[in-house]
Each structure stands twice: as C-alpha cells, then as structure tokens.
Amino acid sequence: MMYICNSVDRTRCGSCGGVNPHEHKGNPTLSYCEKVRKHVKCIPVDCLIPDYLFRIDGMERRTERMMKLLEQQLRACRKCTLHMNGKALPYWTVDYKGIAIVGEAPGREEIETNTPFCGRAGKILMEVLERHGIQREHCLIINSVNCRPVEGLKNGKPSALHLETCRPWINKYFGVLKPKKVLLLGNYALGTILEEDGITSKNATLLERDGVSYVKSVHPAYAIYAQEKGLQMLEKSVLLLSKV
User: Fold this and answer.
1) Burial per residue of 108-128, b for 16 or more beta-carbon CB atoms within 10 angstroms, e otherwise
2) What string of DSSP letters covers 155-193?
3) Is 200 inside any structural domain?
4) Which terminus of the chain has a smaller tally of CB atoms within 10 A, N or C?
5) For residues 152-182, b (16+ Cβ closer than 10 Å) or e, as one string?
6) How far apart are the first and last CA of the chain?
7) Distance (Å, whole) CA 149 – CA 125
8) What is the domain count for the chain?
9) Is residue 159 part of a domain?
10) What is the pLDDT of residues 139-196, one digit of tens each?
11) The domain containing residue 217 runs over which residues?
C-alpha cells in the first residue's frame, strides 16, 4: 500500500522518513512513502494515482486526484433504487476548459458505454457544439441523475426524489471543476440547477449568477421530435454559449 506523507513541515516525515516533496517530481505539496503507516500524518491513498505516473498539461494534478475520488464515490452510490438500472459517470478530461453541460438522465446507450450523451440525441448535440467551436473534451458533461430511469423496457423520467438525491453530485463536481459557463439542456437541468421551468420559452437566454454564465436550452432530443425547429433552437443556445 502507498501513503501520502503529510507531515506538518512538508519536508520529511519523522516517523516514516518520507521524501522531501520538492525533490519528488516537482510536486510542491505531497510526498510519497511506501512504508507501513506509523502515525496519523501518513494518509492511505489506495485509490489515488501517484503524480509521477502521469503528466497533466491542462488540469492540475490535485484536481484530477479529486475527480478520480469523486468517480469512485459515485460508482459506489446506492442512495436510491435507480442504481439497479445502470449508471453513466459524468464525462470529463484533463483538457477541461471551464464549460459544463447538464442533461437529464442516461439512456440505454449511455449505460452500455458508461458515457453521457452518446446516443442519438447526444450525437446531435456534439455536432452542434463542434460547429460552434466547442470540443467535447473541453467540457464536463453531467446529467441531473446519473442512473437510468426506466418505464417498462424504455427510458423513463427521473422523479423529484431521484433529482433531489442526485443533486449533491452536481454540487461536488461543480465544486471541484468550478465551471464558468453552464449549458442547461431541458427542463430537468433547468429545474435542478436554477429551480425554473418552461425551457421552451426560455431557450437561448442567459443568466449570470456568482460569476457563472448559465445558458438555457432545449434538450437535444427536441431536435429529434420537433426536427428542424428543435435543431434551430439548440443551435441558437449553443451559439450563445460560445459567445459568453
């Protein structure tokens, strides 16, 4: 097992002899020790990847470690019955650029691939984003609920209880990544984040709050149901997102 040496002077752990952090691959805050923990200042990090195993250009190492911890916690979540239907973890990469996209709930394709917005509606969304210069890898993509609601054998709608139960996960992901621009797709995302409804009449409108720009948009599935009208509404919202 590997441990983080968290001694007060940040130089050398008196009990385990951990390495000076400034000599450990340039990490200014942490040093590592493979010896058995002997006091409370050595913290086990079984679930963390040591800094020296990877190099990150777009995201701080500390942020990636926190994101990986969040993923482990979310994988283990059993707070409501939806987990029995399958789960799709939020999408993010080390190339994240401060944009968050909030959807409704994962469908069958998302559960199978463990990736949000990879189905038919997701492909429409990605095409529109790319047309306006927004790359998938620059975004956090998260749903209002992370597990799949079902009605019979089809995708269902999340209940108020499911939305309330999953809301803290959005808070945690936003707390770590601190998005500056947020695209809210559909009424569930609008209600979850801003406690509003009526997305059709509010499409392509902007709300500035606490330094974050929230763009309200119809869900990309609307481009399937309403066809050209829905696609035009989605295009208008993403265009606004690209300009704020």
Assistant:
1) ebbbeeebbbbbebbebbbeb
2) E----HHHHHHHHHHHHHHHHHH--SEEEEEHHHHHHHH
3) yes
4) N
5) eeebeebeeebbebbeebbebbbebbebebb
6) 46
7) 21
8) 1
9) yes
10) 999 999 999 998 776 788 899 999 999 999 999 999 999 999 999 999 999 999 999 9
11) 80-243
